[in-house]
């Protein structure tokens, strides 16, 4: 069977995707600072020139990786609002999603390193903070929409809950990642499920 030839746009998209995938794998293994543009290009099977044809810099690629991961998470959250979903089913899906986040979040180390880089690099900080503000706004809107659809009054402003939720998830993920002997998967799940049940849903997590 004759192989279909890619269009110029398809070829560019494929190159970009391979560079992103290669960068993600190397960043997870070596870290952002220790990884060079040449490392990424070589791992993807391209030249340094191909990298700069798609990204202006390594930090720009880093932000694109984070945005890609965020969009995947957002798609998972949006799926909770499928047509005909009841309050009980939406609550159950939200609990399942966040209770398992510490196991499913494969890019946690990327986010942790991005925060460290933002603390040290002023130029990166500006772009990263703008992105994080966007994430917080989206999560706040999601919380408001969930409250309206489920008919569950919010105990705190959506923005406050969004910031608390992001901080809690990051903290639990950190302890589970670096000290799994003392913070087991069951412990992490109990903390996250308990937060949602009591703070967001206003009920006993055991019910």
UniProtKB/TrEMBL annotation:
Residues 36-55 bind DNA. It holds the Pfam family TetR_N. Residues 13-73 form the HTH tetR-type domain. It comes from the Bacteria. InterPro entries: Homeodomain-like_sf, HTH_TetR, Tet_transcr_reg_TetR-rel_C_sf. GO terms for molecular function: DNA binding. Keywords: DNA-binding, Transcription, Transcription regulation. PROSITE patterns: HTH_TETR_2. This is Transcriptional regulator, TetR family. It comes from Paraburkholderia phenazinium.
């Amino acid at each position: 069977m004759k192989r279909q030839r890619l269009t110029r746009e398809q070829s560019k998209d494929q190159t970009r995707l391979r560079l992103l995938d290669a960068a993600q794998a190397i960043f997870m293994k070596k870290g952002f600072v220790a990884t060079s543009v040449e490392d990424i290009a070589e791992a993807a099977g391209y030249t340094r020139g191909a990298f700069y044809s798609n990204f202006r810099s390594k930090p720009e690629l880093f932000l694109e990786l984070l945005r890609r991961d965020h969009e995947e998470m957002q798609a998972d959250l949006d799926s909770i609002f499928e047509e005909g979903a009841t309050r009980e089913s939406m609550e159950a899906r939200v609990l399942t999603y966040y209770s398992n986040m510490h196991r499913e979040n494969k890019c946690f180390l990327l986010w942790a390193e991005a925060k460290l880089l933002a603390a040290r690099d002023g130029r990166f900080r500006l772009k990263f903070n703008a992105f994080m503000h966007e994430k917080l706004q989206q999560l706040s809107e999601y919380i408001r929409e969930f409250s309206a659809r489920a008919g569950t009054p919010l105990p705190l402003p959506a923005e406050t809950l969004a910031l608390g939720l992001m901080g809690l998830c990051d903290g639990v993920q950190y302890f589970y990642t670096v000290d799994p002997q003392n913070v087991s998967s069951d412990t992490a799940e109990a903390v996250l499920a308990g937060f949602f049940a009591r703070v967001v849903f206003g009920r006993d997590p055991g019910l």
